[in-house]
UniProtKB/TrEMBL annotation:
The lineage of its organism: Bacteria, Bacillati, Actinomycetota, Actinomycetes, Streptosporangiales. This is Thiamine-monophosphate kinase. GO terms for molecular function: ATP binding; magnesium ion binding; thiamine-phosphate kinase activity. InterPro entries: PurM-like_C_dom (IPR010918), PurM-like_C_sf (IPR036676), PurM-like_N (IPR016188), PurM-like_N_sf (IPR036921), ThiL-like (IPR006283). Substrate binds at H11, D222, W262. ATP binds at G80, D81, R106, S171. It catalyses: thiamine phosphate + ATP = thiamine diphosphate + ADP. One of its GO terms (biological process) is thiamine biosynthetic process. Mg(2+) 3 binds at D33, D169. Catalyzes the ATP-dependent phosphorylation of thiamine-monophosphate (TMP) to form thiamine-pyrophosphate (TPP), the active form of vitamin B1. Signal peptide: none annotated. Belongs to the thiamine-monophosphate kinase family.
Length: 266
């Protein structure tokens, strides 16, 4: 089981994202948490706080977004609650099944393990930066990545079956989420920044906004990629980007310090 909140103005803006986009994103970020424990998603419960002047059509489109994100993984919205609210709020709880297997937590990484990722990294952060800077038109795929993540759902259960020792979805930024694994496991994780290919669209977005695209990859959230540790080479589709050693914390090669990642109360 996992739960998450989306608040208008904090997690989405209605002038940047359609109701359908918000529904897809709200479902995706919860379904990704289930996959990151090695489980198969089964159901969502949705609590909605809605302004009284919200058009019914907006809610219809939101529902369609939930449906289209849940259907491919065999899940659905099983219930919830609605209340009038001055601010648009979504509270989503997701359920999943492990079919008797133990969950993959953040606490299983051991020295000698390899660190690997699968899914997009940095795309959602680049899309947000383009929207904030007023340059969304040249790179619509990145803006879409901010509006609607594409988690690699099937990779979570597969990694669990193939021996992943720890796993998390990248919702708050790779360095920060790897830091959660390091802390829970009592180890140090070394990330090789040079291991990440930088797509051309990220490079172009960096030029438009004056940002380092590698930092988006390292600290950008909301892509909901998966990061995991493995005792040997990771399965196909995963990219090895570091290793687990004795110690504590996270170190990124080539960077004295990597600040960023999302923390509501930093």
């Amino acid at each position: 089981m996992t739960t998450d909140l989306l608040l208008e103005g904090r997690h989405f803006r209605r002038d940047w994202s359609s109701a359908y986009d918000v529904g897809r994103k709200a479902a995706a970020q919860n379904l990704a948490d289930i996959a990151a424990m090695g489980a198969e998603p089964t159901a969502l419960f949705v609590g909605l706080g809605l302004p009284g002047d919200l058009p019914v059509e907006w809610l219809d489109d939101l529902t369609a977004g939930f449906r289209d994100e849940c259907t491919p993984v065999g899940a659905g919205v099983a219930g919830g609650d609605i209340s009038r609210s001055d601010r648009l709020v979504l509270g989503v709880t997701a359920l999943g099944t492990l079919d008797g297997r133990p969950p993959v937590t953040r606490a299983g990484a051991r020295p000698g393990d390899l660190l690997a990722v699968t899914g997009r990294l940095g795309h959602a952060a680049a899309g947000l930066a383009l929207l904030q800077s007023g340059h969304p038109a040249p790179l619509p795929s990145l803006v879409d990545a901010h509006r609607r993540p594409r988690p690699p759902y099937a990779s979570g259960p597969e990694a669990a079956r193939l021996g992943a020792t720890a796993m998390a979805d990248v919702s708050d930024g790779l360095v920060q989420d790897v830091g959660h694994i390091a802390s829970a496991s009592g180890v140090r994780v070394e990330i090789d920044a040079a291991a990440f290919p930088v797509p051309d669209d990220l490079t172009e977005a960096g030029s438009l906004t004056g940002a380092d695209p590698v930092r988006w990859i390292l600290t950008g959230g909301d892509d909901h990629a998966l990061v995991a540790t493995f005792p040997a080479a990771p399965p196909a589709g995963w990219l090895t980007v570091g290793r687990v050693v004795e110690g504590e914390g996270v170190r990124v090669s080539g960077y004295d310090e990597v600040e960023g990642g999302w923390d509501h109360f930093r």
